[in-house]
Amino acid sequence: MERNNFNNLIALAKNNSAEFLTLFSEIYPDFVASLKTINPKIRSSELEFCALTFLNFSTKNIAQYTFVTIRAVQVRKNRLRKKLNIASDIDFNCWMREQVQRTPMIEQEHIAIETI
Questions:
Q1: Which of 63, 86, 90, 99 has the greatest number of CB atoms lying within 10 Å of its CB?
Q2: How many Cα atoms are found within 13 Å in the side-chain-facing hemisphere of 19?
Q3: Which of the four pLDDT bands, split at 50, 70 and 90, describes residue 92?
């Protein structure tokens, strides 16, 4: 079942489907929560872009699947680096994948703050 969901997710991404972010959020809810914790004003279009990088799509593939130029994808990455405070020397795709691993720490911090 999970393998089927993942294959559907990739197909939705490649087809630039509006349903992509919904399914991605179901499969990886911690990722979306993590980004919203870092910047609560992040837009759904930005979340979708981050999801594509989380899935390790290349800049060229993102451009191809979203019908924009490679330069537009590069500009978007730079804008998101600023919005999410990602240093320029850190690999963007790796940083996105690490967000799922950081979520439990974020939740623990919130619990610790609430108990104080």
A1: 99
A2: 8
A3: very high
